[in-house]
Design brief:
By secondary structure, this protein is mostly beta strands. It has one domain. It has a six-stranded antiparallel sheet with strand order 6-7-1-4-5-8, with no helix packed on it. The protein has a two-stranded antiparallel sheet with strand order 2-3. A hairpin with a 5-residue loop joins strand 6 and strand 7. About 25% of the residues are buried.
Length: about 80
């Protein structure tokens, strides 16, 4: 199943990792920050890196969906994407 974001939404494939991740030499807490790969960008979303880019985003205020293959995706507003690698 292929998901496509609309309006100001971004679909991110969530990457499950260890409870503690170092991002840009800053320790982040998994309870407040998630990380993943940009899967789809809505036509009105701004300042979002291209599809395939590793990003960090807020663990609050997103909708969770699963693909047929069991992959976890987050649908977030564009302003909840905080950084990229």
């Amino acid at each position: 199943m292929e998901y496509k974001a609309i309006k100001k939404k971004v679909i991110i494939e969530v990457i499950e990792k260890a409870a503690e991740v170092r991002f840009a030499s800053v320790k982040v807490d998994k309870d407040t920050i998630l990380h993943g790969i940009v899967h789809s960008i809505g036509e009105e979303a701004t300042n979002i890196p291209p599809v395939g880019t590793y990003v960090i985003f807020s663990a609050y205020g997103y909708e969770e969906i699963y693909s047929d293959g069991g992959k976890k995706f987050a649908i977030v507003d564009d302003d909840l994407v905080y950084g990229k690698r």
